[in-house]
Amino acid sequence: MAVALIMESVADSRVIPKQSPWQIQRAVVFGIFIREIENRFGRYTLGYLWAPLEPFIYVAVLTALRGAFYGGPVAGLPAPVFFAAGVLPFILFRIVPITSLSCVESNLGLFNYQRVKPADVFVARFILENLIILSVSLLIFPLLRLCGMEFEMNDPLRFFGVVALFLMFIAGLGLMFTVLGPVWEEAKKVMPLFFRPLFFISGIFFPLASIPTVFRPALTWNPVIHALELIRDSAFRGYDLAPEVSLNYLAATAVISLTLGLCLYRLFRIKIVTSGTIK
Amino acid sequence: MIEIQKLTKSFQVKNGRHYVFRDVDLSFPERLNIGIIGPNGGGKSTFLRLLGGIDYPDSGRIHSTKSFSWPLGLKGGFVGHMTGRQNCRMICNIYGLPRADIRSKLDRIKEMSGIGKYFEEPVKYYSSGMGGRLGFALSMAFEFDYFLIDEITSVGDANFKKIAKQALEEKAQRSHVVMVTHSMGDLRKFCDVVVLLAHGKLRVYYDLEAGIEAYNQAGNKAHN
After folding, report:
1. pLDDT of residue B101
2. Residues A116-132: pLDDT tens digits?
3. What percent of chain B has pLDDT over 90?
4. Which of A75, A104, A248, A254 could form a disulfide with A240 if both were Cys (CB 3.0 to 4.6 A apart)?
5. Average per-residue pLDDT in chain A?
């Protein structure tokens, strides 16, 4: 009798509501998003405090190093502002592709549910990483302002445009890495090695304008340095922008990256979750 | 109606390719509970995964307008470091249940699974039986045309079997099962038709006893 009662209430004929593909995707991404938050922070004491820690440490260390040599502004901006505006986007650029490598592997259990696809995991992680960087930015810059540093918004519209292009670039890479992870197992070892040197040549702790003109072509092939320079220039008034920096170049690489990412995902979306083909 | 056309599925193994199915054609009429039996490695679980749309064949296709649950098995489907409640909430979210309903639904899932305080513990501490029970109770919170059951009834104790049987009977108006099992008792209890899966072949027996007989013979052949 008791059993019957439980049953009746569990199955109160609540059919899964008929949902459009958009609704399904939203529901799935939301479900995984909650899980990813749990995954990133839930396991540690004071877990949510870890998120801002990495960028804070970068900014503090770079500022301290810089201050040890020369305390003045960098390319027209207070040094910590300059560093923060480089470190935050760069962390996003590094973390999205690297975590995307394991989108499939670390969620094999979830693909048990027919509606969950690797792209949903990717989108959920992408949103989460963006929100982390956004909230850290909203913490760091007012804090620097409170510390008495002076900076003013330059061109908000252009700023959002540049950020959108940069995010396209990152999203494309992320999708490529989502596919790459299960296809090539060694990628998890190899890929981080490529990101490490990029930290030193992407203009995080130096402005492109400080590099002698002859050496600049050695750096400007890298879309990330364009992005960081453009972000600083559009965000803050009075930034000393090198003339080699090109919005068109960033836009082109962003479009190529996203197109390539979407195509590769489309081609391999079945294969990466099919048993017995790879691994 | 489930229609299977020219289904081929193979696995890359160390020494070449292992074919689970080769050019299988099959169709099931509606409103039947389907039992799947066969020796280990015969492709029973793979068959369920293909039906559930979470794995894909090399070639051929499975066509049905019905909805299928995820395969209810002993492993997979839950995130180890999350508690039973967190896992269930996530899956309710994924299936788009209205948020207002989820909390009460979770309490009922807990009650039906009968795992008690373990519902609030990370799933990695569960025994395989407990994982299976929770998965079953969770799936009962949804409506599907077919529930894909992968051996969970065989690990459940008598009480759980009773609950499972009752739950499925209450849903019998709308829902049926496709069930992988090694227990002929469960087969007789739950199923109307039996599929014998062995050596890359699929055979359907509308007479349960004939199917069981064929299974026993196939088993003997394998041993000799």
Report:
1. 86
2. 999 999 999 999 999 98
3. 3
4. A75
5. 85
Which of these ranges, A63-67, A86-90, B190-194, has the smallest mean pLDDT? A63-67
Chain centroid to CA B22 = 22
A-side interface with B, Cβ within 8 Å? Answer: 3-4, 6-11, 13-17, 19, 23-24, 27-28, 30-32, 34-35, 38-39, 42-43, 108-116, 270, 273-278
**Residues of B numbered 88-107 whose beta carbons fall under 8 angstroms of chain A's beta carbons: which are they?**
89-91, 93-98, 101, 105
Comparing CB atoms, the residue among A4, A16, A109 nearest residue B166 is A4
Query: What tokens appear for B180 in the block?
Result: 């992988």
ipTM of the modeled complex: 0.84
Contact B10 A276 (CB under 8 A): yes
pTM attached to this predicted model: 0.86
